[in-house]
Write a sequence for this structure.
């Protein structure tokens, strides 16, 4: 079964010829503009929407879909999320990039392989990604997902090794 991942949302229309104002994940302009097809969930089915043209405008994209030629054609999809299949995302990941659902649940270990907790979520503070970690003492702490702190990610063995600097998990 194909797994779909959200890459944007139709925020509104732009002009009268069916162009959509689309919000998407920050710093993903190149990836978003490379897409030629997205899916919209309609009645629990993922319907393909083929992209004719994408252009960027500050904090959003203006997208023209094939067959959407007026405001009336676009209005039923206002507020709809745009998806791509998981394989499309995986093909575009850099060597040190991961899907959030791959990281959630992984154990956090220190340099001596001592378990310190596990990842319960991932967020972003604008500067970098943050791992939300539930420690052995049941506290939730945020760990910056940067190479100086996160030294190794091993999805297969379900472990993330960190440089446990003083005060990090307090």
């Amino acid at each position: 079964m194909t797994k779909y991942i959200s890459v944007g949302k139709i925020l509104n229309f732009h002009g009268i010829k069916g162009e959509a104002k689309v919000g998407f994940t920050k710093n993903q302009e190149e990836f978003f503009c490379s897409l030629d097809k997205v899916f919209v969930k309609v009645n629990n089915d993922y319907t393909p929407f083929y992209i004719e043209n994408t252009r960027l405008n500050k904090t959003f994209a203006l997208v023209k879909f094939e067959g959407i030629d007026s405001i009336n054609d676009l209005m039923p999809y206002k507020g709809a999320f745009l998806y791509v299949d998981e394989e499309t995302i995986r093909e575009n990941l850099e060597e040190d990039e991961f899907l959030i659902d791959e990281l959630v649940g992984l154990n956090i270990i220190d340099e001596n392989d001592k378990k310190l907790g596990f990842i319960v979520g991932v967020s972003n503070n604008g500067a970098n990604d943050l791992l939300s970690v539930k420690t052995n003492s049941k506290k939730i702490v945020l760990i910056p997902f940067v190479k100086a702190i996160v030294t190794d990610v091993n999805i297969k063995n379900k472990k993330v090794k960190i440089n446990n600097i003083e005060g990090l998990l307090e």
Q: What stands out?
A: The chain has two domains: 4-91, 100-162.
